[in-house]
């Protein structure tokens, strides 16, 4: 087994002594964290037969993270958002550290996500965690490090300010007033739980089964010139969402093609134009601050959960890969099962009594 001793090099005072090919060797590091990470990788390789190149573990986390983000299958909009989160929050803390040192410094990463970034929204913190864990998971798969210790770092949802600030549910009349200005995308978001980019990219041919199902297979690019893959999905991936009859009634007599057609060479209306009309109409309708296009998606999910639709089905329709994401966002809206359970047990007991008489 390898050990860490005080080295003679003042610039790299932390020395790891280890055995390789029957000979004792040494390698020195500037920080104790790097030395511990190297020792962990070396001991793992000796115990399980190798497979980890310790030199690759000294690759800077920043270089590995940028490569990971560049290869991540997602839409251009998601790629821009992920890159922004990385540059603003992850890179300043971790970019100049080695993969091995980050992989073994759970305390530093946990502090970054829960303390340094504690005032940010839950979605930003989750994105930062995804970037960090994804980078390290790829490093493990490619043999750069043996393992990492950062799985299961919990992020507390600090309530409405951080997690539920978009839960503003206006009246039907107010939504109709916004839709009159912003377009049918408002009803697509409210009736099918779409993201605004998805709603802007919907075409009449996406409705199936006589208007009972909406197939969501892409989203409009920010400039409206093309349809791009769904968030964190590859080209060709899609999801089918139930379509309410009232929404199909709005669509059935519209011409073929995009429901929100653009102009001047754009196939779809660009996000900036629709967003501006949406904000102005929401203000004119007297809707409280905090109402955004995403609030309509929240309203859809809330209506489904209030009606007793299983959370697992809602997660699929929203396009969440992980049901934990759905629960973290909407778990507070799931009706308590305690009352229904008590009613079921009482009914069962009444049936027993009826059988005994």
Main sheet specs: 3 strands, antiparallel
CATH superfamily of the largest domain: Intergrase catalytic core
CATH class of the largest domain: Mainly Alpha
Number of strands: 8
> How many individual helices?
15
Can you give the mean pLDDT?
Answer: 85
Strand ordering within the main sheet = 1-2-3
For this structure, the CATH topology of the largest domain is hpI Integrase, Chain A
Distance linking N and C termini: 75 Å
Structural class: mainly alpha
Can you tell me about this structure?
- The chain is mostly helical and 357 residues long.
- It contains 15 helices and 8 strands.
- A 3-stranded antiparallel β-sheet has the order 1-2-3, covered by helices on one side. Strands 4-5-8 form a 3-stranded antiparallel β-sheet. A two-stranded antiparallel ribbon has the order 6-7.
Present the secondary structure layout.
Elements: E1 3-6, E2 14-20, E3 23-29, H1 32-48, H2 61-71, H3 76-94, H4 99-103, H5 106-116, H6 122-141, H7 172-182, H8 185-192, H9 196-200, E4 207-208, E5 213-216, E6 219-220, E7 227-228, E8 239-242, H10 245-251, H11 271-284, H12 293-306, H13 311-318, H14 323-330, H15 337-356
Antiparallel strand pairs: 1-2, 2-3, 4-5, 5-8, 6-7
Helix pairs in contact: 2-3, 2-6, 3-6, 7-11, 8-12, 13-14
Task: Summarize this entry quickly.
By secondary structure, the protein is mainly alpha-helical.
């Amino acid at each position: 087994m390898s050990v860490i001793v005080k080295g003679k090099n003042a610039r790299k005072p932390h020395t790891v002594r280890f055995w390789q090919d029957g000979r004792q060797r040494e390698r020195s590091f500037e920080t104790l964290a790097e030395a511990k990470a190297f020792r962990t990788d070396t001991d793992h390789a000796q115990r399980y037969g190798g497979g980890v190149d310790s030199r690759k573990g000294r690759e800077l986390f920043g270089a590995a993270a940028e490569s990971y983000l560049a290869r991540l299958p997602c839409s251009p909009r998601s790629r821009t958002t992920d890159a922004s989160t990385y540059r603003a929050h992850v890179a300043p803390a971790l970019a100049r550290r080695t993969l091995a040192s980050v992989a073994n410094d759970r305390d530093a990463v946990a502090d970054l996500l829960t303390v340094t970034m504690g005032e940010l929204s839950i979605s930003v913190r989750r994105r930062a965690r995804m970037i960090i864990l994804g980078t390290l998971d790829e490093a493990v798969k490619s043999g750069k490090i043996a393992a990492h210790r950062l799985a299961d770092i919990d992020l507390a949802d600090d309530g409405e300010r951080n997690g539920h600030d978009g839960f503003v549910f206006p009246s039907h009349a107010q939504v109709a007033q916004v839709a009159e200005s912003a377009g049918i995308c408002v009803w697509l978001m409210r009736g099918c739980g779409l993201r605004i980019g998805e709603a802007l990219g919907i075409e009449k041919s996406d409705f199936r089964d006589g208007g009972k199902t909406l197939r969501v297979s892409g989203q409009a690019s920010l400039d409206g010139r093309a349809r791009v893959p769904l968030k964190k999905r590859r080209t060709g991936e899609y999801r089918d969402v139930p379509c309410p009859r009232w929404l199909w009634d709005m669509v059935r007599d519209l011409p073929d093609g995009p429901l929100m057609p653009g102009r001047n060479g754009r196939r779809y209306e660009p996000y900036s134009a629709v967003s501006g009309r949406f904000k102005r109409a929401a203000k004119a309708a007297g809707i409280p601050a905090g109402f955004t296009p995403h609030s309509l998606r929240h309203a859809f999910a809330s209506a489904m959960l209030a009606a007793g639709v299983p959370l697992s089905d809602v997660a699929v329709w929203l396009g969440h890969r992980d049901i934990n994401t759905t629960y973290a966002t909407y778990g507070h809206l799931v009706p308590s099962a305690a009352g229904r359970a008590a009613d079921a047990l009482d009914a069962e007991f009444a049936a027993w009594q009826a059988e005994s008489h």
